Amino acid sequence: MKRISTVVGVAGAVLLALSMAACGEKEEGNTGSAAPAPSSTVDQALAAKVPDAIKADGVIKIGTDSTYAPAEFLDTDGKTVIGFDVDLFNAIAAKLGLKTEWVSSSFDDIIPGVVSGKYEAGVSSFTIRNDRKSQVHMISYFLAGTQWVTQKGNPKSVDPDNACGKRIAVQNATVQLDDIKARSKKCTDAGKPAITIEPYTGQDEATSAVATGKDDAMLADLPPSVDAVRKNPDKLELLGENYDSAPYGFVVAKDQQAFAEAIQGALKQVIAEGTYDAILKHWNVEGGKLTGEPEIDPQTAE
Question: Distance between CA 38 and CA 198 in Å, rounded?
Answer without folding.
Answer: 40
